[in-house]
Amino acid sequence: MKQMTQTEKTKSYSWDVPLKFYNPEVFKNDWRKVADHTRSVLMEDLVNPSDYKSIDIDAESGRLYVHVRGVKPKHWNYFENERGVEGEED
């Protein structure tokens, strides 16, 4: 009989970036285009959708806010070292 495994711990990562950091010629100062670009980059980097729960992106007052929830341990290094953000345990 297979023993039940403990649920894997996950973390959530959040950060914000000024919209002006994104090339206005490419994105036309449209936060939705920036959000789509950011989401696609994260999805390419994380590859497997089961390795995280959700990616939420919003904008307000000239800033883009990114929240990635339910990130599995194998991607913690990506966020903490590559993106320079600290995670919070879910």
Question: Secondary-structure blueprint of this entry?
Answer:
Blueprint (H helix, E strand, L loop, with lengths): L10 E8 L5 H4 L3 H16 L7 E7 L2 E9 L4 H7 L4 E3 L1
Antiparallel strand pairs: 1-3, 1-4, 2-3
- Give the strand tally: 4
**Radius of gyration computed on alpha carbons:** 15 Å
Largest sheet: 4 strands, antiparallel
**Strands of the biggest beta sheet: in what spatial order?**
2-3-1-4
* Order of H and E elements: EHHEEHE
What's the average pLDDT?
Answer: 91
Strand fraction: 25-35%
Structural class: alpha+beta
Discrete helix count: 3
Morphology:
elongated
Distance between the termini: 30 Å
Number of domains: 1
What ranges have pLDDT less than 50 throughout 5 or more consecutive residues? none
What would you say this structure looks like, in words?
- With 90 residues, the chain is an alpha+beta fold.
- It has one domain.
- 30% of the residues lie in helices and 30% in strands.
- It has a 4-stranded antiparallel β-sheet, with helices on one face.
- The longest helix has 16 residues, at 31-46.
- The protein is elongated, with a radius of gyration of 15 Å.
- It starts with 10 loop residues before the first strand and ends with a strand.
- The model has no long low-confidence stretch (mean pLDDT 91).
Question: Which tags fit this structure?
Answer:
alpha+beta, 90 residues, elongated, four-stranded antiparallel β-sheet, 30% helix
Quick recap:
The chain has helices spanning 24-27, 31-46, 76-82; strands at 11-18, 54-60, 63-71, 87-89.
